[in-house]
């Protein structure tokens, strides 16, 4: 008898999970709260509903919940009451995958760059390797193509980790923890607990790689049961650290030094490189191979990405800066004369921590989106402001007033959902506008 499987949410991971379930022989019913739309990549055998979640999904033996959906919505409470299993796309996909090793990377900032770099290093040595998660395709898209020698590198958000409490990767990487997503998690302690799921189920023989320079990472490292490896921009007695322009690898009784060419701006990218180095090394990659890949790596899209020089001003796309800490990191990467585009959907945090950096480095802030008034209020009196409304107006205004030697930076410190589908679309629009100048 075929089992019934329900899918809540038809975003990227929901569609992938539903299609995987059909291939595995399930009867699949998918429910989405959004308006009715045609989804070209969805298998035609899947029955759907839109505009809300009816009780139809309670006919399922198991429900796969998309990470963007809160666990406390009424239909999920009903499912739990009926003792219907509710699992994440990650759990469902892992249960139907084969693999040699899983490298799981999380943190508030730097996840995509670190995951992308780690995956490229792994791929340079282990040809049977894939990269999945927030960085691109959900694991469900590739689960049935995995084998016993597959290395899986994955970028995981706090949403995904929160929904997968039994997760146990071979190698976990926790880059940093700063306030974010409190609209979902409500408290910092709940947010931190979600991040801890990256390593909390690991055992002796596994590896947990944590940022020694991050106070929260250091504090929660006491909960690690795996082999703990710290990375740091400062010298350590053991671990992976930056030492006079070189990367030192001091793990166990072995010591190596590599000196890769670093092609990315910002001290935060040193941390990302150190984390990727540690992950690749404990996955069995030779340090010289790690050095070669880092030296060729130019960085991930939408992360302090150089776009073009126009009339002597350099334009950078940092659309991935969706929180205040990531915008702080971006500003720290430049000296002065910054013209910054900020705004979007506010995440509920004050912008005051940026005040000193803005005063020291920013010539003007060009405001866009819903958070404009709050940003102006929090950062008033220290720089000039221009109310632009949207990115097109901001780019046009900057083009008229920028001077040679200026740095133009899209680093919004906000989510993109007030005006864009996601931060990728926001960054792509910015780049298109700049390239037309």
Jot down its keywords.
single chain, 437 residues, alpha/beta, 16 helices
The percent of residues in helical segments reads 25-40%
Q: How many domain units?
A: 3
Poorly predicted runs are: none
CATH superfamily of the largest domain: Mur-like, catalytic domain
Biggest sheet strand line-up: 7-8-6-9-10-11-12-13-14
Classify the oligomer. single chain
Structural class: alpha/beta
Distance between the termini: 62 Å
* Rounded Rg: 22 Å
Largest sheet: 9 strands, mixed
> What is the number of helical segments per DSSP (H or I, 4+ residues)?
16
What is the CATH topology descriptor of the largest domain? UDP-N-acetylmuramoyl-L-alanine:D-glutamate ligase
Give the integer mean of the pLDDT values: 94
Beta-strand proportion:
15-25%
Mass-distribution shape: globular
Name of the CATH class of the largest domain: Alpha Beta
Describe this structure in words.
With 437 residues, the protein is α/β, with parallel strands linked by helices. It has three domains: 85 residues, Rossmann fold; 200 residues, UDP-N-acetylmuramoyl-L-alanine:D-glutamate ligase (3-Layer(aba) Sandwich); 131 residues, Mur ligase, C-terminal domain (Protein-Tyrosine Phosphatase, Chain A), CATH 3.90.190. Helix content is 32%, strand content 24%. The chain has a nine-stranded mixed beta sheet. Strands 15-16-20-17-18-19 form a six-stranded mixed beta sheet, with helices on both faces. It is globular, with a radius of gyration of 22 Å. The termini are far apart.
